[in-house]
Design goal:
Blueprint (H helix, E strand, L loop, with lengths): L1 H10 L2 H5 L10 E4 L10 E4 L8 E4 L2 E4 L1 H11 L2 H13 L5 H10 L6 H12 L8 H13 L5 E8 L2 E8 L5 E5 L8 H16 L3 E5 L1 H4 L1
Parallel strand pairs: 1-2, 7-8
Antiparallel strand pairs: 3-4, 5-6, 6-7
Helix pairs in contact: 3-4, 5-6
Length: about 220
């Protein structure tokens, strides 16, 4: 109905309601199982059916579940957007790898599922999800440049402590760290960051640091 469409317009698409950073400025959309026309009101996606488990309530709106939203994003967006959304869903604990694995298995033949299956292979190959938008941007920059794809969030033991490396290029001592200001803006984080850098260097790693400005 038109009043529901107007309500949806004020709140945005499911990806917006979930809170994905890359969809903050997205236009409103509506998924419908009927053939009602709402041309000129908002963008409409028509699907044959939506299972009860694919509909949840969030912020007072009935929207598609996290897994269904990711599937729709993968079907309608580029790989960069899909990867960013999946990584954000994992780090914000909206989704687990096991839940993603079940969804990919159940969604055989669905649009977008192959993109998610490839991203699942990356995760199952030992790569953890990225932990910030800056790390997402680093991944896209490396792909764009045609450089080897590094491992993400690798754990190494240095000076008796487990350290996680943002990116490490396999077979080399090269480590790439994504430095967001928010994580290094206090005196304590500043000191710990320098100690970590020195420990990695003493262990033989070559540490390259990228900030937003350096990346761009």
């Amino acid at each position: 109905p038109r009043w529901l469409a107007s309500w949806a317009c004020r709140r945005g698409a499911a990806a917006v309601v979930w809170g994905f950073d890359v969809f903050r400025e997205a236009p409103p959309e509506l998924t419908m199982t009927c053939d009602r026309r709402l041309d000129g009101v908002l963008r409409v996606h028509r699907v044959d059916s939506l299972a009860r488990a694919e509909i949840v309530t969030r912020r007072g709106l009935r929207i598609t579940s996290m897994t269904r939203t990711l599937l729709d994003v993968a079907a309608a967006s580029d790989d960069r957007t899909t990867r960013a959304c999946l990584n954000e869903a994992l780090r914000r604990r909206w989704l687990t790898v096991e839940t993603l694995r079940r969804m990919v298995a159940d969604a055989q033949g669905a649009r977008g599922v192959e993109v998610l299956r490839e991203l699942l292979r990356e995760l199952e190959g030992g790569d953890g999800p990225t932990e910030s938008q800056l790390e997402d941007a680093v991944v896209e920059a490396l792909i764009w440049a045609g450089l080897p794809r590094p491992r993400r969030q690798c754990a190494v033991v240095v000076d008796g402590r487990v350290r996680r490396l943002d990116f490490q290029f396999a077979g080399t001592p090269v480590v790439l760290e994504a430095d967001g200001f928010a994580w290094h803006s206090t005196r304590r984080s500043f000191e710990e960051d320098r100690a970590r850098h020195n420990a990695l260097t003493a262990r033989g790693f070559i540490v390259i640091r990228w900030t937003w400005a350096a990346l761009h």
